[in-house]
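Is this the right way to post structure tokens for a design question? Let me know if I should format differently. Anyway, here goes:
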């Protein structure tokens, strides 16, 4: 049962990842699936540091394009996991 659930989740991620777009600091839009591994890892680090700053200075939750930082980090971690 666990393997079946995992496979369904993995299939869902693979479908979603074809559509997810990240906007770089230079304003370029790229599909997350097309990003280099190093870019994905650096993005996770960047987002995490920004959230840490928001927490430190009690600025609330860091959001990017209407989604919380933690959601983006999870998306990027899942992306690395399916590669």
């Amino acid at each position: 049962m666990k393997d079946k659930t995992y496979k369904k989740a993995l299939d869902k991620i693979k479908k979603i990842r074809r559509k997810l777009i990240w906007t770089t600091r230079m304003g370029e839009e790229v599909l997350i699936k097309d990003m280099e591994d190093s870019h994905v890892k650096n993005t996770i680090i960047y987002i995490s540091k920004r959230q840490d700053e928001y927490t430190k200075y009690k600025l609330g939750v860091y959001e990017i394009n209407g989604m919380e930082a933690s959601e983006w980090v999870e998306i990027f971690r899942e992306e690395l996991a399916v590669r």
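Format looks fine. Someone answered above. Worth noting: The chain has one domain: 2-82. The CA atoms of residues 17 and 33 lie 6 Å apart.
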